Amino acid sequence: MKIMDLKERRATIVAELRSIADKPEKDGDLSETQEKRFGELKGELANLEKRLERQTFVDEADRRATGHMIESRGDDRLEDELRSFSILRAIAGQCGMDVDDGRERELSRELAKRSGRAPKGIFVPMEVFHKPLEKRVLTSTSPAGGPGSNIIATDHRGQDFIDRLRAALVINQLGARVLNGLSGNVDIPKLKASASSGWIAENQALTLSDHQFDKVSLTPKHAGAITELSRNMLQQSSPDIEDLVRGDFAAILAEAVDSVAIDGGGTNEPTGILQTAGIGSVAMGTNGGALTLDATADLIGAVTQANAGTARRSFLGSEKVRTATMKLKDADGRPFGLETVFHGEARSFSTLVPDDGAKGTGTGLSTLIYGDWSDLIIGYWSQFDLLVNPYESTAFKKGNVQIRAMLTTDIVVRHAASFAAITDIDTAA
């Protein structure tokens, strides 16, 4: 049994022990049945602790015996090894090219061991994306108007690569909580309602009230991208090309994650903030209306009155909202400015925030969200899974290599009341 399974069973036992201890059935003491069950659970827990200790020792010994990896997740040497992972060497190795990809294969095996999952191709550590990086079909020559022109040249200047225009990626920066290295489905318990207090007359009994518990769940969902690289690029590219390739994959999937975090519709994709039942709402009018200082104040109030946290509160609006806000003026025609309109609160803007209604409903109205972003949870089940197909018919004819990248993740709002939104801002008003 894996450590994760043992820990899950331990948590279940402890919860049942607590339930028995908190609700004695016999004059404030445990009944005979409860006492028996408590003893059984206590014995099982002691045995489980021994199994956990043994399994932990075996797993650690196994890690030391496999390769030359450093065991600790937070070890600086391992961090450096992961950051130095070369995506191009990993791809070239899968293509059968004569490259030294031993380190990449060893790191992939270590990541697979830690996650308990086997890659479809090769695992690429997420650490390689922790710096600004970028690509599309990148080639060494310039096919008539084709993408990737002039990437590999005699006088190569990879640092001057002209990227495509991308949506601003903001969700992590706003303070969303990130859970890495997940294995099974994840349930996160939360307190739904507290015990209540009350005032009573002398010699009267208090009304019994219990805590109520709930949970939010994360289940694996998959995002992916397919692209092409030329064989010549894999063989001859400069170190700058490594950064371009890393950056393109990172930006494509980060954009996918940001988009669903904001407005994901569930089923195949995560449920985003705007699609989460119970978030606060402020309306601009029957048919929408221009953003006002009162409306942004009401948005703050909707979250504050719900007793939401203050750790990472911020506005997030569409770029059209930013433009419209910059045009707001006082009675004397002087611009209010972003600081005034948003009452001194932090704010960010992105083209990923809907300007056409939630999930593109066609309203033509823009959106502004406010909330405590630490109550948005992003979970990752895998590293970046890279699978190379050098035999895909179209790519094969051109001597190129097709690459598929997959990321397994889910997103959930911990407390719906931590967020509120205006979805009917008329930015043309």
TrEMBL record:
InterPro entries: Phage_capsid, Phage_capsid-like_C
Domain annotation Phage capsid-like C-terminal: ranges: 156-423
Localization, UniProt: Virion
Superkingdom classification of source: Bacteria
Pfam families according to UniProt: Phage_capsid (PF05065)
Principal place of residence: virion
Protein name: Phage capsid-like C-terminal domain-containing protein
